[in-house]
Amino acid sequence: MASYRAVSAASHAIIALLRASFDRNDFGRDLEFDVYSHQSFRSAMSAGVSLFVYRIFHNGTNRMPAGRRHLDGRRDPPRLPIDFHFILTAWASTPSLEHTIAGWFMRTLEDHLVLPAGFLNVAEPDTFRPDEMLEIAPAELATEDLLRLWEGLLPNGYRLSVPYAARTLLIDSNYDAQTARAVDERLFEYRRITAETGS
């Protein structure tokens, strides 16, 4: 099942994908790859790619999908459908290298727009079921919104970034729903009504 660790596992899987696709010979130097929190931007890497999740929200087109049914007939509670949006940032000391890194990671993700469970479970095993996958797509983020995001992360320190969205994560509940036993017989109560009692 996709557990509540799904966003973390997916973020680290995307970074793992970029790290595995990287060839030092293409750049003539090593690059760093990491998942960032807002505090990470104040002591950022010198050259590489960072992933920062800036938005998680309910997927309104796939609301409350049915929970998984067990072999004994029990059904789990409805799954939570979510999308998360993130930016990939190119870090470098020169514009040329920064642009090259950005072009490279965009091409790499375009070649891997669907990540299977086997890859998603690399960082955090057993987070996704074997039949699950994650779709990654370019996202729309207005220039004004992107600059406002950076103003909160690193005032006066914008770096070249590309927005993406990961759709649709279906997070299963930890609550073990108990389903009532199926009805297999009916019991009727018979009571005689008499004139004396009126009942």
Verbal overview:
With 199 residues, this protein is an alpha+beta fold. The chain has one domain (6-171): STM4215-like (2-Layer Sandwich). Helix content is 26%, strand content 24%. The protein has helices at residues 6-21, 24-27, 95-110, 117-120, 143-153, and strands spanning 32-35, 48-58, 80-91, 114-116, 133-138, 161-171. The N and C termini lie far apart (57 Å). The model has no long low-confidence stretch (mean pLDDT 85).
Total beta-strand segments: 6
Report Rg: 25 Å
What's the number of helices? 5
Low-confidence stretches: none
Return the structural class: alpha+beta
Please give the share of residues in helix: 25-40%
CATH topology: STM4215-like
Task: Looking at this protein, list some descriptive labels.
single chain, 199 residues, alpha+beta, STM4215-like, six-stranded mixed β-sheet, 6 strands, 24% strand, elongated
Give the topology:
Elements: H1 6-21, H2 24-27, E1 32-35, E2 48-58, E3 80-91, H3 95-110, E4 114-116, H4 117-120, E5 133-138, H5 143-153, E6 161-171
